[in-house]
Amino acid sequence: RGHGPAKDGIGLWWKLLGRNKRNLTLDLSAPGGRDVLLQLAAETDVIVENFRPGTLERWGLGPEELHALNPRLVLARVTGFGQFGPYAHRPGFGTLAEAMSGFAAITG
After folding, report:
1. Residue 43: how many CA atoms within 13 Å on its side-chain side?
2. What structural domains does the chain harbor?
3. Burial classification of residue 19, based on how many CB atoms lie within 10 Å of its CB (0-12 exposed, 13-18 middle, 19 or more buried)
4. Higher confidence at residue 15 or residue 32?
5. What is the C-alpha to C-alpha distance for residues 32 and 75, in angstroms, rounded to an integer?
6. Does residue 53 carry a pLDDT above 80?
7. How many CB atoms lie within 10 A of CB 31?
8. For 71-98, b where at least 16 C-beta lie within 10 A, e where not — what string?
9. One-character DSSP codes across the chain
10. To the nearest whole number, what is the mean pLDDT of the chain?
11. In the prediction, which pLDDT does 70 show?
């Protein structure tokens, strides 16, 4: 089942679910990307990241640094296998979760 074509470059699902929301994708390896994140962290309510555990810390952008700029900031860390445990260091994607959970075997 498809989501249908986009209109004016914007898909229907985003028009529905992204209403009144703003988002931004940053390349933290590009010059200035880190600075933009730090500026935004000082003013924003929530940051959602999906890097492997320890990545933000290696870049000097971990919770301690971000909360020093904005103590009210909520940092949501979405990883494939959690922040701790035997698989925490592994990357995780939707298809991998389907395979490891058995969902792919059930649905085919």
Report:
1. 4
2. 24-82+90-107 (3.40.50.10540)
3. exposed
4. 32
5. 21
6. yes
7. 7
8. eebebeeebbbeeeeeeeeeebeeeeee
9. ------BTTB-HHHHHHTTT-------TTSTTHHHHHHHHHHH-SEEEE-PPTTHHHHTT-SHHHHHHH-TT-EEEE--SS-SSSTTTTS---HHHHHHHHTHHHHH-
10. 88
11. 98
Residue with tokens 């990241």: 49
Contact 66, 94 (CB under 8 A): no
Q: Which amino acid is at 39?
A: Q
Q: How far is CA 91 from CA 25, 34, 53, 82, in A?
A: 19, 22, 9, 10
Residue type at 8? D
